[in-house]
Amino acid sequence: MAGIRVRLTLDPDGAVWLESPFNQDFVDGLKRAIDYSGRQWDPGCKKWLVSALYADVLDAFLRTVGAQVQDDRAPTDRTGGALVAPPPLPTDLREAFDALFVAYNAPLCVAIGVPALWKRLNRHHTRL
Q1: pLDDT per residue over 21-79, tens digit each?
Q2: CA pair distance 17, 41, nearest whole angstrom
Q3: Contact at 8 Å (CB) between 13 and 52?
Q4: How far apart are CA 75 and CA 98, in angstroms?
Q5: Closest CA to 79 of 23, 126, 16
Q6: Closest CA to 97 of 80, 81, 79, 115
Q7: Closest CA relative to residue 72, chosen from 5, 1, 27, 3
Q8: Are 77 and 83 in contact (CB under 8 A)?
């Protein structure tokens, strides 16, 4: 498995895309290193999507197996590099976040849960 070449890119949500040639030993090792909830295979792109929570585990795994890594992720303050501004939000999404009082940099799970909460509160207040 040593010498396998992989490419890492950053997803807008902070997750890591992992591109590699198929190698059954590598895939088995990846599955052992990263929990099922932290990884997902995208058959359309033929890439692994690794949750941002498991980025450090992925880096450690790649070092352990001796992979040749092409890291195309943008540097962040965590790695000591320059801060990279997040991509701008579309105007309609920015207005929706403002209307729901959600921060622009809120995790996706928060942004998805807010509309359901909003509907529930709306039903509650219309009954009063």
Answers
A1: 889 999 999 999 999 999 999 988 889 999 989 999 999 999 999 998 888 886 544 55
A2: 10
A3: yes
A4: 28
A5: 16
A6: 115
A7: 5
A8: yes
